[in-house]
Amino acid sequence: MSKHRKILICLIILLFLPVLGVCAEDYITGNSNNGGLNQMYEEQLEASGAGKLWDSLPPETLDLLNRIGITSFEPSSFTGLKPENVANKLLELLIQSSRGPLRSTAVILGVVLLYAFMEGLRNTVKEESLSKVYGVICALAACATLIIPISVCIKNVSRAADSVSVLMISFVPVYAGVMLVSGQPVTAAAYQSVMLFAAELISLLATKIIVPLMIVSLALNVVGSVTPDMKLGSAGGLINKSCGWLLGLTTTIFVGLLSVQGLVGAAADNVTTKALKFSLGAFVPVVGGALGDALNTIKGCLNLLKSTLGGFGIISTLLIVLPPIIECVVWIILLSFLNMAAEMFSLNSVSTLFKSAQGVMKTLIAVLASCSMFMIVATTIVTLAGGGTS
Amino acid sequence: MNTVGIIGITVFAAFLSLLVRRFHPEYSLAISLLTGILVLGLIISQITPVISRIQNLLESTSLSPEYALIVFKALGIGLLAQLSSDVCRDAGESALAEKAELVGKVSMLILALPLFEKIAELAVELIKGGGAG
Known about the structure:
Strand content of chain A: under 5%
Distance between the termini of chain A: 54 Å
Largest sheet of chain B: none
Helix content of chain B: over 70%
Number of domains of chain A: 2
Structural class of chain A: mainly alpha
Number of helices of chain B: 4
Shape of chain B: flat
Radius of gyration of chain B: 21 Å
Distance between the termini of chain B: 54 Å
Helix content of chain A: over 70%
Shape of chain A: elongated
Strand content of chain B: under 5%
Order of helices and strands of chain A: HHHHHHHHHH
Radius of gyration of chain A: 30 Å
Structural class of chain B: mainly alpha
Oligomer: heterodimer
């Protein structure tokens, strides 16, 4: 009797198992529940800890993200970005970033004219030794006038490099976690180890080595412009070139390393995922196929989350570095104009200073480009390598 | 600026100095010194409005007008040092002339100290800012 009862219970269970599987699949695909997919996405988003990434962004970047329409991790926020809206906001940013340098340039142009006037007055002090001291004082006054706005720009660049590093340190573990659960353990491990090391290294390079070296270069050029006999401009140029090479080399090595690891890791992850699906289909009786499909759905949801997070990381990095890059570019253009004015009045010392300040600005752009390109290229490689777009 | 008047004063003083030099060389020196001070005073009185205008221009910007003031003060010191040095040389006291120039140079450097300090402060602030991020 008991044997018959056991067989009956087994039959009932076997009869209802496919129905349970279909119910689970329906829940996942949202057929039975309208918010099924959305709910799963929300749950995955919450579990990943991505919500806290907003806190790692500087207020200016948050404001820019809001203005272009990215206020949440909803995929529609990213897919609904309108090119004309983004272009308008970028134009606004350009105007906003140019305002400060333009105002400073007007003042510096006034100082250049004043300096030209002073040079004229300097000839009234005929005694050569007195005239030299007076010339030094004139050049110092012009340098002090120029250094204040440029130092503000250097500070902005340093702050932006630091913000990118903070974002990378907050973003990478979250993103690697999503990659890990979406079936990319090898790529996730490579991404996390390389990116965290690179974030620390870039932060260290930018804030502790390159920005102070830029200040040294600027200081050397200031001294060089005050004392033209010492020819310190070439030393400043050497520092600028060394910094450029250092950044270029570091970025190339790490991006290359991550590309190779990403390619190999993607292949390894692909094998693991296929093996898992095969095992589910082959070894789990009856519901194996449904479980495999459910796995695909979950993976698809995770890929969507991964792509959205990747997009957030890339756009945030761009928006952090864009204002200081625009400021530096505007400064380079305006310094060319100031250099032209200084050469017109034959103020060689100030003209040298403007040229060297241009060199410093170019290196600062290289610092920001390296910081941002590393994050953007690395995230794009791993997103595409894992089929993040699927 | 009454240019013709000032030029007239200098030419007249030179003529007078030349006249009295043969009999009273010490008066000649006094005449050239007094004329120099008078001309310098006249020039400074004429330049003052220009200086105040430049200061106002700098005040209207974010920059400190202190720099322009230092430059103008240094110019004044240079002119005074040169005047005294020339007078000493005319009197045949080249050692004293060099001392006057030295005083002028040292005074100018002391005057420019706030500029050096400002640039040094900026450098320190930048290095600290860069270090702390």
